[in-house]
């Protein structure tokens, strides 16, 4: 069965500092990988996705992620965080076209931004 | 705003009552998913529809849960005889499948259910 592990439950970063959120996945086929962000009281917003091709993908709000098949990882990065980036971040894996089981999400990483 | 809407946004009910939630997906999206998200967890898949057909149900979806998508447009999720363990955020997502592998699920804002 597919699974996603986000090892860090909470991460605290100073405003302006760089950020890396870790994600490891387990999937039997070629994975389709996603990062979503959820702010309090809001739904999930897609930051970026990887389907194929270039393993470094760019997303919205200055985020990027790198797919490393050998490490089964899809870590999210941002060179300089802003206070507005404080939110819950979810990594997810899924099949093409959504798949019969939808997306499988990690438990999320709560990002706290220090002034 | 992703274009997926859910109503109501919040629902407080007493244990044993029935509740119904509605999801309106993006109009041209043919697949619709329901997820449940409890505190401190990521969303978990409940069920999905391809047009009006319900094609898959998670083992999380007990007999007290039923979902419909009667005309292949909006969907409803009903919980009968609610229990305190049903308290969660219920999320709906839609997708236009068959677009060459670039499908992305768009999520609504969710309905937060509190069972007292």
In brief:
Chain A is mostly beta strands and 115 residues long. Chain A is built from no helices and twelve strands.
Question: Can you describe what's shown?
Answer:
- The complex is a heterodimer of chains A (115) and B (116).
- Chain A has 115 residues and is mainly beta.
- Chain A contains no helices and twelve strands.
- Chain A has strands at 3-5, 10-14, 19-21, 24-26, 32-38, 44-50, 56-58, 64-68, 73-78, 87-94, 104-105, 109-114.
- In chain A, strands 2, 5, 6, 10, 11 and 12 form a six-stranded mixed beta sheet that branches. In chain A, strands 3-9-8-7 form a four-stranded antiparallel beta sheet, with no helix packed on it.
- In chain A, a hairpin with a 5-residue loop joins strand 5 and strand 6 (44-50).
- Chain A is globular and about 40 Å long.
- The model of chain A has no long low-confidence stretch (mean pLDDT 92).
- In chain B, a hairpin with a 2-residue loop joins strand 5 (44-50) and strand 6 (53-57).
- In chain B, the strands form two sheets. In chain B, strands 2, 4, 5, 6, 9, 10 and 11 form a seven-stranded mixed beta sheet that branches. In chain B, strands 1-3-8-7 form a four-stranded antiparallel beta sheet, with no helix packed on it.
- In chain B, 0% of the residues lie in helices and 48% in strands.
- The N and C termini of chain B lie far apart (30 Å).
- Chain B has strands at residues 5-7, 10-13, 19-24, 31-37, 44-50, 53-57, 65-68, 75-79, 88-95, 106-107, 111-115.
- Chain B is mostly beta strands.
- Classes of the chains: A mainly beta (115), B mainly beta (116).
How big a fraction of the residues of chain A is strand? over 45%
Largest sheet of chain A: 6 strands, mixed
Return Rg of chain B in Å.
Answer: 14 Å
Order of helices and strands of chain B: EEEEEEEEEEE
Gross geometry of chain B: globular
Total DSSP helices of chain B: 0
| Quaternary structure state of the chains depicted | heterodimer
Structural class of chain A: mainly beta
What is the overall silhouette of chain A?
globular
Radius of gyration of chain A: 14 Å
Low-confidence stretches of chain A: none
The residue fraction in helices of chain A comes out at under 10%
The most extensive interface, with participating residues per chain, is: A-B, 28 and 30 residues
């Amino acid at each position: 069965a597919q699974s996603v592990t986000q090892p860090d439950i909470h991460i605290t970063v100073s405003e302006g500092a760089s950020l890396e959120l870790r994600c490891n996945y387990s999937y039997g086929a070629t994975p389709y990988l996603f990062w979503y962000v959820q702010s309090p009281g809001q739904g999930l917003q897609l930051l970026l996705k990887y389907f194929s091709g270039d393993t470094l993908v760019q997303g919205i709000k200055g985020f990027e992620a790198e797919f490393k098949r050998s490490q089964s990882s899809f870590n999210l990065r941002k060179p300089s965080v802003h206070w507005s980036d404080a939110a819950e971040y979810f990594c997810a894996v899924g099949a093409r076209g959504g798949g019969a089981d939808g997306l499988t999400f990690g438990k999320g990483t709560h990002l706290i931004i220090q002034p | 705003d992703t274009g997926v809407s859910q109503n109501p946004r919040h629902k407080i009910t007493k244990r044993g009552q029935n509740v119904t939630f509605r999801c309106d997906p993006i109009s041209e999206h043919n697949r619709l998913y329901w997820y449940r998200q409890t505190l401190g967890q990521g969303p978990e898949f409940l069920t999905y529809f391809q047009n009006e057909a319900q094609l898959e149900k998670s083992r999380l979806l007990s007999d007290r849960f039923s979902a419909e998508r009667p005309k292949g447009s909006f969907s409803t999720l009903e919980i009968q005889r609610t229990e305190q363990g049903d308290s969660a955020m219920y999320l709906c997502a839609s997708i236009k499948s068959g677009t060459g592998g670039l499908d992305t699920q768009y999520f609504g804002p969710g309905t937060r259910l509190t069972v007292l």
